[in-house]
Amino acid sequence: MNQSEQLSNTANDQLHDLTSPLLQQVIDAWIELKTQQPLVHIMTNTVASNYVANILLAAGASPAMIDNPFEAESFASIASAINLNLGTPTSEQMQAMQIAAQTAQNLGKIWVLDPVGYGAVLKWRSDMADLLLQYQPTVIRGNASEISALAGNQIQAKGVDSTVSSESIYLQAQPLFEHTECIAISGESDFILSKELNAVIQINGGSYLQPKITASGCALGALTAAYCSVSSTITAGTMAAHIHFAIAGKKAYARANTAGSFNVAFLDEIYSLNEEDFRQYSDFCILPL
Amino acid sequence: MNQSEQLSNTANDQLHDLTSPLLQQVIDAWIELKTQQPLVHIMTNTVASNYVANILLAAGASPAMIDNPFEAESFASIASAINLNLGTPTSEQMQAMQIAAQTAQNLGKIWVLDPVGYGAVLKWRSDMADLLLQYQPTVIRGNASEISALAGNQIQAKGVDSTVSSESIYLQAQPLFEHTECIAISGESDFILSKELNAVIQINGGSYLQPKITASGCALGALTAAYCSVSSTITAGTMAAHIHFAIAGKKAYARANTAGSFNVAFLDEIYSLNEEDFRQYSDFCILPL
Amino acid sequence: MNQSEQLSNTANDQLHDLTSPLLQQVIDAWIELKTQQPLVHIMTNTVASNYVANILLAAGASPAMIDNPFEAESFASIASAINLNLGTPTSEQMQAMQIAAQTAQNLGKIWVLDPVGYGAVLKWRSDMADLLLQYQPTVIRGNASEISALAGNQIQAKGVDSTVSSESIYLQAQPLFEHTECIAISGESDFILSKELNAVIQINGGSYLQPKITASGCALGALTAAYCSVSSTITAGTMAAHIHFAIAGKKAYARANTAGSFNVAFLDEIYSLNEEDFRQYSDFCILPL
Question: Quick one: which residues bind ATP (chains A, B, C) (predicted)?
């Protein structure tokens, strides 16, 4: 074992020791979500809006879709967290997003950026995502194609779906730490890059049916905003949202393995999840960056 | 017993005598809804639109979401009823709403206003709601926070969710009779203020899961419009929509007590409700104002 | 038997001989859809967007709702097929649709027009539908009222629902062959007019509950676009989408006969359909035009 391997092992051990405390923070965040029912200001796409609202209500948060430029500042000012999703932008929504992001930064509010479809083909939204980075999103959440492209890599997505795996690109995402504390990349496993811990957390679970239900990524972004507004750290809040989804997806699939029934079961499991589930089914590991 | 108590008792007795005839009017309205399948012109928010359409189809109405200013007048002119919902307004929708409300008033059409999120924080839509009042909505429907604020009280909502109970504010809503014949306040119990009867009807039922499903209030507003276009009186139509919801919610919860399954069961029950259910499960009382 | 009857019988026999090869083409299209997962560029209405995306994902396609004028050209250029649906147009969507249709025509891409609500009452969208015809949609899909009106007949729809049967109007639709190769009219039975075969294909199946679920026509239009991008002929692709729906509707109804449960079961059946189902349950006949 050479010196570099020894250092790495020490880092691994230290991170491994974080597993229990992080799980406790995740559970605490879940309890706080149920208790505080934080108001989440959401600007999302027309495909996702109903689903996102139902997921947040089921989880215990209080979602409100306010996406016009005339109310963006006043509503962002009273919300506990903000989620901006670039799925189907309109000119008015674009104005509203910039106002909300600026308000969030000015007031030190939690806000989550979801750069849906980021890449060369969808330039209008991609330019807006670049612009929104200057308002320092608390968390950036997307699929592997989006995050990789946002971090400056040349990548070709398939529409709004990813063509690469989360595992293969998470190291490419680190330049985004210039703009954010936390980067969440969803996929077969989810990878959460934490500036605070200088580590990446790999979260397993979910179901291969999840990408067959539209807008689950969008809902995850909004839930991340909700959790981060009540958690002790941004890392724990982001983890809590992703673990909540991973366990609900796994349990839903055990009950229902076709698209329609899975969709219903997933919302049931998001609603029903309890502390015991978190302790029993959380499946994550922490790796050094 | 003093004279004032005697008067009140007399009023109570007279109102109590209305229970059976009102229930019959409600059932008649339900039969007419199934028979006439009234065309309802709906402008609603992006969160609610799919759900509202499915609820109305299940109940027997024919919904059509037409929300641009270029077709608002011609479509309002042929619709049986109109429902304007301020959930996620755009500039074009705002124009369209004003045109539709004006058309409704000019042609003496049933129209229902749902002032989602009314209050100081969401000024743009609140100004529009104030403006729309001049076109004399047939029914105003909202949660307790919205109705109280619309009636001129200082109240703080939590986003688009209410922070006060329907029971505690219904007396505050009476100034709205200047603009409308009927005010429906949804909550744990619903309260319908009828100018015609000079009474308030309290409707019990539903499920505590209902607020966990987004857009059920929005769907209730649209269904109220549908019912009022076929009922003998506005009071009976508004009651019919609320009782239809209350029974369906109660029956759905008996079958399914988690968010996703409840959502599906609720649509099933809206569809399946029959005359027997109305007679068996209607739970309302009439109180003097 | 006179000469004319003999000719007609010969035509009937020749068309009847097409039944087996057409079914094989339909099955081949279904296999290709699962394999290629074509990217479908969709501009649709706010009522339908979530449902349409879920149906396409369940069937195996990759939907993306991109409906702003700033990204319409670049995205249409990379998509395998395009679906333009006039359900709830906005000014920006209208611009985007024209750009996408023009791009489709320039690049020889499959594109499907769904003229929701076409008729005298909804003039703004109807003018746009007329305009879009010049870009030669590959397929025009609608209900009987819409298709009849688009073909120049005086007809009165009820909002966005049809007031006439598909069977009664399909002969009126033939003038649309000036603009398209294929016309699909949905209803109790679906009728697909094929310029290639100079025939109409009648497809049976589905369920009377289908019109009780909003946006199933919209989803069928988008699925038609998906199928046509992978099928050997436009006729086979259009048939495949309609047969996929007809079988899924029939099987779903056998499991669930109320609106909410049917909705879930239908998505399940869209997802689960297999080659055996196509061979067992396809129910169509081919008639001369």
Answer: 141, 186
